[in-house]
Amino acid sequence: MDRAATQSGNRRSPDTYPDQVDILSPVILVVTLIISWAGAIGGVFALIDALSRRSDAYAAADKQTKGTWVGITAACGAVMGLGVVTPLFEPPGLLWLAASVGTLVYLLDVRPRLREVQNGSRW
Length: 123
What we know:
Blueprint: H1 3-8, H2 24-52, H3 55-60, H4 66-85, H5 94-119
């Protein structure tokens, strides 16, 4: 504490507001839990979808092989599933973000192309 504050009588303790209520932490916890579960469900869905597609559809869609995408979605699904169980892999973490990118690439880029190749154009 500086000398001027001490002389003027403005002494503040380190706990300025000891009775302060923390209302933001429970909201952050709930949002993190919702994102964790949504990511885990999305990761498992991407894995099941990658397993259910034919191997030749990946080549026809000009994407990586079925084994590659099954491996990517399995790893991403595992990391996102662990995000529900342990704080090491929860949503703000780097591994969880990498897993979400892998899952989203499959769901938003590869899956629509595979559906188009297998079912034809929707128009």
